[in-house]
Amino acid sequence: MSGNKKTFFKNMLLFLALMGPGIITGSVDNDAGGITTYSVAGATYGYKLLWTLIPSFIVLLVIQEMNARMGIVTGKGLADLIRENFGVKITFFIFLGLFTADIGNTATEFAGVAGSMQVFGISKYLAVPLVAIAVWFLIVKGTYKFAEKVFLIFSLFLLSYGVSAILSKPDWSQVGTAIIKPTLEFNTDYLSMTIGVIGTTIAPWMQFYMQSSVIEKGIKLEDYKYTIWDVIIGCIATIVVAFFIIVASAATLHVNHIKINDAKDAAMALKPLAGALASKVFAFGLFIASVFSAAILPIATAFYICEAFGFEAGVDKKLEEAPQFYFLFTTIMAIAVAIILIPNAPLIAITIWTQVINGILLPVVLISMIMLVNNKDIMGNYINKPVNNGIAWSTIVILIVLTVVLVLSSIIPNIL
Question: Which domain holds residue 216?
């Protein structure tokens, strides 16, 4: 075997050993809320909003790279760095908001579990508790390595949306045109949906999970190049799945003028249009995404709260070693499940106000990140370069503007 081949296989093995945080963080972004947003976008506007996936990819890549670099260089999570550099009071109010929002987010994920199982004729009163128990045992009784393998398999399953897209028989020439020739409409509904598609790419809790998972995996500075490929692949996977969902919805629901409110509606509407297989594959994807996020969200929340206030945290820790971590994880799961099992629970209101809280906190988290990653006392020679800063600040300004508009449009209808 030549030297080049040996080097290639060595690098490939190292990458396979180190991959996980970037792919999992990217994939979990396609949660029940994200799938609903993409489904409604495709059903309402056809292929017109496919162009938004390009800026979404850039935004996701820029932010996740900074997270990974901070975690590797400092060996500390984002919550820890915020507490050390901005004080306990600011940290407390940030995390109080995040904790509240993440309970709502987790409830939304279990709503996705309930909705997807309805397509298969299974009651939420059976599906939701069983999924919650399975997730609890995976995290509390399992190890980080085992949980990570399960999450990577879940990430792979999300590509099943490609099957739904192909079975929907889209017009691929129209798809290509929509990507390279953006369609802009200056009306309230179109701009709100554009903001929703781009905005669903970034959530405050994702930044904490990414950095914490890099640390828990024990990735070192010399492994940075492998982690960057992990981040890139995760971002690509996120956008590809979003692309398939929009295409599947556009090729079936939009052309038949069918309006939907959530991802479950999309799955059920696909049956008479693209066949039972397309419908069930779509519902299966929603189920996987919802279970995936229902596990990751409580982990991320428990991790950054414990980290911020000096408690032991981590999936590799035993119950007696990190009681606060597992107490928070269990509490978030229990509250979210209880909300979903309440008959006629106001899920739409919960989702809207969760988005509002996320929207208010997102600029605070992103500005904290950009200040930290440019602090030479923290990052040494690994601070952002001028070009990186230009891209990062531009991204943050755009996100802040979009977020403010999204929050205001949620509170004040027809503001656009």
Answer: 19-411
State the burial class of residue 236 (Cβ atoms within 10 Å of its Cβ: 0-12, 13-18, 19+): middle
And the tokens for 315? 């999936």
> Is 3 part of a structural domain of the chain?
no
Structural domain contains residue 274: yes
Q: Is 2 within the bounds of a domain?
A: no
pTM of the model: 0.82
CB 332 within 8 A of CB 293: no
What span, in angstroms and rounded, lies between the C-alpha atoms of 164 and 172?
14
For position 130, which CATH number holds?
Answer: 1.20.1740.10
Alpha-carbon dihedral 14, 18, 19, 20, rounded to 10 degrees = 160
Q: From first to last of its 416 residues, what are the pLDDT tens digits of the chain?
A: 555 666 655 556 555 555 667 777 777 777 777 788 888 888 889 899 999 888 888 888 888 898 889 989 998 888 889 888 888 888 888 888 888 888 888 988 898 888 888 888 899 899 999 999 999 988 888 777 777 777 778 777 787 888 888 888 898 999 999 888 887 776 667 777 777 777 677 777 788 888 888 887 778 888 888 888 888 988 898 899 889 989 988 988 888 888 877 667 777 777 776 677 878 888 888 888 888 888 888 888 888 888 877 888 777 788 888 889 899 999 999 999 999 898 887 776 676 567 667 767 777 888 888 999 999 999 988 888 888 788 778 877 876 776 676 666 656 656 55
Extract the tokens encoding 54. 């390009």
| Residue pair 245/161 in contact by the 8 Å Cβ criterion | yes
**14 lies in a domain?**
no
